[in-house]
Every structure is written in C-alpha cells, then in structure tokens.
Amino acid sequence: MAHEPRDPTGGLDRPVAPDADEHERRLEAALRPRHLDEFVGQQRVRGQLELMLSSARLRERAADHVLLSGPPGLGKTTLAMIVAAEMGAPLRVSSGPAIQHAGDLAAILSSLTEGEVLFLDEIHRMSRPAEEMLYMAMEDFRVDVVVGKGAGATSIPLELPPFTLVGATTRAGLLPGPLRDRFGFTGHLDFYAPQELELVLRRSSALLDVELSGAGYAQIASRSRGTPRIANRLLRRVRDWALVKGIDRVDARAADDALSMYDVDERGFDRLDRAVLEALCRTFGGGPVGLSTLAAAVGEETETIETVAEPFLLREGMIGRTPRGRVATAAAWEHLGLTPPDV
Ligand SMILES: Nc1ncnc2c1ncn2[C@@H]1O[C@H](COP(=O)(O)OP(=O)(O)OP(=O)(O)O)[C@@H](O)[C@H]1O
Ligand SMILES: [Mg+2]
To answer: What's this model's pTM, rounded to 2 decimal places?
Structure first.
C-alpha cells in the first residue's frame, strides 16, 4: 500500500497550496455549505446527486453508496456531509489510513444504525483485508467476523443494517475495480470556473464579515486555481489585510495590493511558479532543459519542482514536457512580459 503523503515535500505554507493542514481544516468547517442548494458549481454532480437522494427519500431507503473523486480542496468532504444532512441521517467519519485491520472496519460497521452515512476519506489507502470486508458489507450488508486464532478460529456472520457508504479519494485510479464497481453513484469533481469561485467567495465573505466589490471578488477568484479551498484561504488573507489597513470595502485595487503582498500574481502563480518560469525562459532560453538542471537553477529539490510547481504550470499551458526536457510555451514568455525568441 502507498502511504506516502500527497505532497512529500511539504509546500503547505504556500498561499496557493491545494492541501490544508489540521488548523486550516478547522477554519474550513465554518465555511462549509450544509445543504446541496448552498453547494456552488459542479452542476452535473450536484444534479445527479440530488436526483439520487430525492429518490432514496421517496422510497424511504438508505441512498446508494457514493464515490467522490477529484483533486484536493474541491468539495469531497463537504459533499459527504451534505449527503448525510440531506438524508437526515447520522454521519460517521473515518478514513483509509485509520483502518489498517479488518477488525477496525468490523467495529465501525457493526455499530452503524439503519440509514447511517459512513464517510471513508482517502478510501484508496485502506488495507487489503479491510477492503475485502467492505465489498461484502456494501453489497450484502453482511460481514464475517473472525473470532479466535489459528485452528480454533471461527467466522461468525453478522447482519448489518442498510447504510450508505460515501468514499472520497484524490486517486480514483488507485481504487481496485471491484471496489469501484460497488458504488451506485460516482461523482468526479473538476476545477471550478472563476465565476463559480466568485459565488463561493460571496457566500464566504458574508460568513467572514468582510465586504468586497464585484471586481474585488473577481480578483481573488482568478488567482484561486479553480479551487474553493484556495479561494477561501486568499479571502481570509484579504480580510486580515483589510482589517489591519482599516479598509471597509475591498475593491479590485485593494484585493490586488493585498494578494501581491502574499506573492500571488493575477494568474494564481506564486514565487516558486514564477521562479521556474523565469529560469526556463531567461536562463535556458525557453528550453528544452532537464528537470534536475531546472531544479538546480531554481535552488529547489527536483521533487518539489515536479510535484508542487509543475502540475499547475502544465494545466495552465505555461510549460510543456518533451522527451528532451521542459519547455516554455508562448504563454509563459507572455506572462513574464518577455518576447519569445524566433524559432
Ligand atoms: N462547491 C462549493 N461551494 C462552497 N464551498 C465549497 C465548495 N467546495 C468546497 N468548498 C469549500 O472549500 C473548502 C474545502 O472543501 P473540502 O474540504 O470539501 O475539500 P476536499 O475535496 O474534501 O479536499 P481534500 O481532498 O483535501 O480532503 C471547504 O471550506 C469548503 O467549504
Ligand atoms: Mg476532504
């Protein structure tokens, strides 16, 4: 089993990190939409989920098992909690890494009540024996509990009340087929459009008691990398800035000033991203240049460049990967205010 953290190099102190530490996760709880109609964007997943939950309510049955996949900070945990709230059902929370033995899972499953929602975060990190127990529990609402050891061990079948499993994963590809197949509903969350993030920000600013102009919201949204978690984090920093500076209403200019202070530019690139682009264009004439050479020029670990900076630069079409190394695209030159060389 892979147990390495998602971002082995840290990087959580970046204002635009997609992950959140424990402290931030507690702050996030206050901003979490409780019901489906407060959940912004993700039109398709939201519509499908709404249909499925309404049908379960009409039939007075536990809803089908739900699998939510997608990058960090896009709303998987939020949706899991919404499933329980919409069903008026109690919620039990655990996670793959917390379930290392089948017995851990048996203990949770055997204490579920009828209709309860069991949220298993990072479900791809569960141990194999637990996973196999989960197959049977999901399909037949039954588990075999093994009592005793060695030759004297017996397995006792145990009936479970109907429950709804909500699994979340950032790595859907790591889930074994048989587990994936047992979910009645699979929702993949994608990055948000800037207009959707503006709606997230409007809702959050009311809760954080900070006032912005329309253009102020747009400034933050465009720097948030399609991710509500980052939008909410930048909003908190803008709120702090406005409070200290005694600004009542944050307009585009003020938002820009605040976020520049945190080194987040108008496309959501931070200092590390820009250092990579600068090295690629200025030092290496646009490439191609090997990853380790690029990393040395920036003064970072190869791994940091590859896992922390590169994914977003690739997504934004700033750099390309070729067999001979990394190259800058025309967009990268333009972003730095440079003229690309003639080729
Ligand atoms: N559609 C949305 N509307 C409003 N707020 C949202 C939405 N999606 C996410 N958020 C907010 O973004 C923050 C992060 O969301 P959440 O914790 O659900 O992400 P996640 O997908 O579970 O991330 P991770 O993979 O790191 O666990 C929360 O504060 C949440 O309220
Ligand atoms: Mg989560």
So the answer is: 0.92
Task: Determine contact, residues 272/15, Cβ cutoff 8 Å.
Answer: no
229 labelled binding-site residue = yes
Nearest to 144 by CA among 153, 155, 135: 155
Which amino acid does the sequence have at 185? F
Compute, in angstroms, the gap from residue 71 CA to the centroid of ligand 2: 10
Ligand 1 nearest atom to the CA of residue 18, by list position:
26
Q: Is 291 annotated as a binding residue?
A: no
Domains in the chain (CATH in brackets) are 42-188 (3.40.50.300), 194-261 (1.10.8.60), 271-335 (1.10.10.10)
Pocket of ligand 1 (CB under 6 A): 19, 28, 31-33, 39-42, 72-78, 170, 200, 228-229, 232
CB-neighbour burial class of residue 250 (10 A; exposed 0-12, middle 13-18, buried 19+) = buried
* Torsion angles phi and psi, residue 220, rounded to 5: -70, -40
| CA distance readout (Å), 318 to 225, 286, 312, 335 | 14, 11, 9, 9
Residue-wise DSSP of 262-327:
TT--TTS--HHHHHHHHIIIIITTT--B-HHHHHHHHTS-HHHIIIIIHHHHHHTTSEEEETTEEE
Q: What angle do CA 234, 237, 243 make, to 5 degrees?
A: 140
Asked about 307 being catalytic, the answer comes back as no
User: Are 277 and 269 a contacting pair, CB within 8 Å?
Assistant: yes
First to last CA, the chain: 47
| Nearest of 106, 109, 125 to residue 117 by alpha carbon | 109
Give the pLDDT confidence of 60-118 residue by residue, as tens digits: 999 999 999 999 999 999 999 999 999 999 999 999 999 989 999 999 999 999 999 99
225 annotated to bind ligand: no
Question: 223-244: per-residue pLDDT in tens?
Answer: 999 999 999 999 999 999 999 9
